[in-house]
Amino acid sequence: MDRTRALQAYRGLIRAILKYERPSKVVNWGNLQKTMITKLEYSKKQNPKNLHEHTDRQLDSWRKLDPGNDRSLNLFIADSKLLRSVLQNEIKWGEKIAQGQNADEIFEHAFDVIKFLDNQREYEELVDRYNPGNKLTQDEKIKRTANIVGLDVPT
Amino acid sequence: MFASLKNGHCITRSVRSTLPRFYSSSAHSLGIDNTIENNSPTETNRLSKTSQKFWEKVSLNRDIENGKIALQLDGKTIKTPLGNGIIIDDTRSLLAYLLKLEWSCLPSLSIKTHSLPLTSLVARCIDLQMTNKPGCSPQLIAKIGGTSDVIRNQLLRYLDTDTLLVFSPMSEFEGNLRIAQNESYQPLIKGMEEFLSRFSSNSNIHLQVLDADIHGLRGNRQSDIVRNAAMKYMDSLSLWDLAILEKAVLTTKSFICGVLLLENKKDTNQLPPTLKTNMENIIRAATLETLFQIEKWGEVEDTHDVDKRDIRRKIHTAAIAAFKQ
């Protein structure tokens, strides 16, 4: 009984953390993709006489990467080791379940953590959806303001 | 901790001056950063001013000897707005893990005041502990909104017009709201009276409710016996727990809900059985009227759906910070 609940709580926790991490992961991978492509192209230009088979292959794979739709980002959480050590060694939920003590509070708390992560993520999504201007950079805001009155920002 | 910057409370303080009534005797608001400008050179302040990510790596540094965990950016401990390091007991390692998660999942641009709820609360807990050490400069105490006594007194005011002590008239919502309120609030009030009587020499504690059918529209005030008992309860709390109580009370507009949250995250064997509950029930009790309004009039976009998540993330933030392994 408690084992299945433990499993359910742990799975829920991992799933909530994955969802919570995803937006920032996508952004980070996007940034990394950009810098890698610039770097590789720069190194190609530096030595125009060499053959660049290896660089080309790398460039190709970086260009193919689409972090927004990449399922592999859903496969792991960044700190799984730390989380496992916290659950096993600090909260000792394995031991406590085996001894049948206090386990209810721990499960309850695991679900509270899940709810926190989910609601925080959904809250931010909603705020972004209802305030689409928030995410724009200053340049983008100026450009759009100019567009409203039919002008273009000089390039 | 970014509250003043976002809401501009410090600028738009009301200039109205009327004779104070009993319920407005010490009415400057709680939970708001009243400092006009807080220029301590700390990471949290830097973030609130620039809202740009300025670090590469978030990590936890564990000091096994002293049993502490420090939250670090690029190897330097993050400081709270008042300049104290974010260092917590290692009995709260799950909290430390979640703090790290919160910082490592920030988007690089446009970090908002609501992006770091856990850090805000923990920073408040730490700052409150530090400013209540003897010999703290009055300037810092003013920045956090007064000594812990001031905060206790202001929290006490929420018990007078507690969400769980105000009953709506039978004529609203065909009486359904009142029935639901009776069902959900009455046992909690009973349990709360029992709980508070432990902190009083007087065993007959009675919470004064405000019933719209009987009392109509007027103020409400608890007797001195109740106030003293509630005060004693708050005195028994650690400063860390007091900051969490404050967060919960401000979110739910209910002192009772705050006590419920805190006590249900502690050893619940001591608690009267009617007070044993979970976070979801606390939230439901605090938002009961809104739930009935939504049912009758429909959910308003950009308001009800956002508020629903908002209260949940805040209550669960408090729950996570209150939990001790």
The structural class of chain B is alpha+beta
| Number of β-strand runs of chain B | 6
Q: Structural class from helices and strands of chain A?
A: mainly alpha
Mean pLDDT of chain A: 83
Task: Give the terminus-to-terminus CA distance of chain B.
Answer: 26 Å
Poorly predicted tracts of residues of chain B: 1-27
Net shape of chain B: globular
Major β-sheet profile of chain B: 4 strands, antiparallel
Order of helices and strands of chain B: HHEEEEHHHHEHEHHHHHH
Largest interface: A-B, 34 and 39 residues
Please state the CA-atom Rg of chain A, rounded to the nearest Å. Answer: 23 Å
What fraction strand of chain B?
5-15%
Determine the fraction of residues in helical runs of chain A and give it as a percent range.
over 70%
Kindly report the average pLDDT value of chain B.
84
The number of domains of chain B is: 2
Number of strands of chain A: 0
What distance lies between the first and last C-alpha atoms of chain A, to the nearest angstrom? 66 Å
Oligomer: heterodimer
Helix count of chain B equals: 13
Protein name (chain B): ATP12-like protein
Organism (chain B): Saccharomyces kudriavzevii (strain ATCC MYA-4449 / AS 2.2408 / CBS 8840 / NBRC 1802 / NCYC 2889)
Main location (chain B): mitochondrion
Pfam family, one (chain B): ATP12
Short description:
Chain A: This is FMC1-like protein. Chain A is 74% helix and 0% strand. Chain A has 155 residues and is an all-alpha fold.
